[in-house]
Amino acid sequence: MLFRRKKEMQKSRDFDPAVYKPVLRCSICNGEQVAGFKNRETGRFEEVRAIRGEQELAAFLAEYGLDHIDKEY
Hints:
The chain has one domain. The chain contains one helix and four strands, in the order βββαβ. The chain has one helix spanning 54-64; strands at 20-26, 33-39, 45-51, 70-72. Strands 3-2-1-4 form a four-stranded mixed sheet.
């Protein structure tokens, strides 16, 4: 398929803070934000969901039990 959704990471049971760092990737050009996890060893970013507002960001933080998230540009 040409257009398909990416597979989402498993819920918080697979999130290991020793391996993954929660990151909010932000675009400077258009302001698009994507929440996901960055592998600490390889630096590879895995997208979880697009963030379009404060409510979606709060839901992401609550879903994975996080109190803050770092931004990357």
